[in-house]
Design a protein that fits this description.
single chain, 453 residues, alpha+beta, Neuraminidase, Rossmann fold, 9 helices, globular
Length: 453
């Protein structure tokens, strides 16, 4: 996923070498006083982030269950510290938990979870199924730190219009109090407002998305409309500050007179397991219909101009960009960031091949038809949309060759294209000068193919 959305990514999780890779072969261990390691859980699934309870009786951990779940599942389990049968606690709304801490009395576990377009803290009891929502509000909590007894917490809070600051609150009653003014001395330029939209895909699937209006938006006037697709596919667009640093500088586009739609199509996290798994063996089809229905919604609202539609996305968003331009000609120009148009060559070169195999239901040599069906490169003859290709030179997640395949194919077919390669760059720009460069290059590309009003 792009840098602006780092919660629960898949294609966009850290690359090999950045951190230890998750493995289903490593059980949750206990270390005895003599230094002997005793497995507490020896399932075939993935277990991680063990937390000992304050009373020393339990170990809480995040797990897929008995078997691996490549698409993405993380339920809350506990196991007796002395050994015994693991037990799943109450099922959380998203079923992809991030454990924060135990309560001081060892009776509940605090978690952080994506809930639609928000991120909040919830508490799951050791006994019973009633989950307590510790925080609330239309925004994103991050960097949560609880007191040793679990009766208070410090965290950052941000919304679409408000940059992050540090807050504190009791955990029994949510009463947030701001304790920093990190941006008080910064003059904030005019910003386009952001609105949460809902719509239905043609098959009735409910979808949410965030629409950022142009700065100085005038009701009744239509504006060029950008579809920005998140990474993942189990990424999510949340209600983060839209003026923050990211690959796609949303407020820069808004200042230039664009409306920007950021949908959460099927496959996104934040909406439960069933929604996250809804793109299994369906990449580029149901999810694309969700995205295009969102564009139609904004056009029907009288905000977007049907004759000035544009497309951009990174990682899975780049995949969707490459796929969309093979299936529709509605976009005047597109920008594919770290896209993967060839899922066969991608599977044998990426550092997370098992993830793609999980999404597509098997190895490519057993089912070439499925891999080809979901690979844009096999329909490149249908592309007419001017498509920019952007990639990092040292991308191990989506190797540079993926971008090269699409760029060379477009070039050989005579489709307008260009390729930008950022040196030293992994799966997304890290160096500030590169991060600041991307949006300007996309704007230049879009303006080149902007039809006259």
């Amino acid at each position: 996923m792009a840098l602006e959305e780092e919660m629960n990514a898949d294609l966009d999780q850290k690359e090999s070498g950045d951190e230890d890779e998750e493995s289903g072969d490593d059980p949750v261990p206990a270390c005895e006083a003599e230094g002997v390691v005793t497995p507490l859980v020896s399932w075939d699934g993935v277990e991680r982030t063990p937390f000992w309870s304050p009373d020393g009786r339990w170990v809480a951990f995040n797990a897929t269950g008995q078997f691996p779940e490549p698409i993405g599942l993380g339920d809350l389990y506990v196991v007796p510290a002395g050994g015994g049968e693991p037990r799943m606690l109450a099922e959380t709304p998203n079923r992809r938990v991030q454990i924060l801490a135990w309560s001081g009395d060892s009776r509940s576990v605090f978690l952080q979870e994506v809930l639609g377009t928000t991120v909040h803290v919830i508490a799951v009891p050791l006994k019973g199924r009633k989950i307590r929502h510790v925080s609330s509000g239309d925004g994103v909590m991050a960097s949560v730190s609880l007191t040793p007894g679990g009766d208070g917490m410090a965290f950052t809070w941000q919304t679409e219009e408000q940059a992050w600051d540090v807050f504190i609150s009791p955990t029994q009653e949510y009463e947030p109090r701001q304790i920093t003014r990190l941006h008080a001395g910064i003059q904030q330029p005019p910003m386009g407002r952001t609105e949460l939209l809902t719509w239905e895909a043609p098959d009735g699937t409910p979808v949410e998305g965030l629409l950022t209006y142009p700065v100085d938006y005038i009701p009744g006037q239509r504006y060029p409309l950008i579809l920005n697709v998140h990474g993942g596919p189990a990424g999510v667009f949340t209600r983060r500050f839209t003026g923050g640093p990211s690959i796609y500088m949303i407020q820069t586009f808004a200042q230039k007179g664009y409306a920007v739609l950021r949908p959460n199509p099927r496959g996104s996290t934040g909406y439960g397991k069933d929604f996250r798994y809804a793109n299994f063996k369906d990449l580029g089809y149901g999810d694309l219909s969700d995205l295009l229905a969102g564009m139609d919604r904004v056009i029907d609202m009288g905000v977007g101009d049907a004759d000035r539609q544009f497309l951009m996305g990174w990682s899975y968003g780049g995949f969707m960009t490459s796929f969309a331009v093979t299936r529709t000609h509605r976009f005047k120009a597109a920008s594919m960031g770290a896209g993967l148009p060839n899922l066969i060559s991608m599977t044998t070169t990426t550092d997370i091949g098992d993830y793609l195999v999980g999404l597509l239901g098997g190895e490519f040599w057993d089912d070439y038809a499925t891999y080809e069906k979901h690979s844009a490169i096999y329909r490149i003859q249908d592309v007419v949309t001017p498509t920019q290709v952007i990639h990092g030179q040292r991308d191990l997640r989506v190797p540079l060759t993926q971008g090269q395949e699409f760029y060379r194919g477009l070039e050989r077919r005579g489709v307008p294209t260009e390729m930008i390669v950022y040196p030293r760059t992994p799966h997304g720009p890290r160096e500030p000068k590169f991060l600041m460069d991307v949006t300007g290059r996309i704007l230049t590309w879009f303006e080149k193919y902007m039809p006259p009003v």
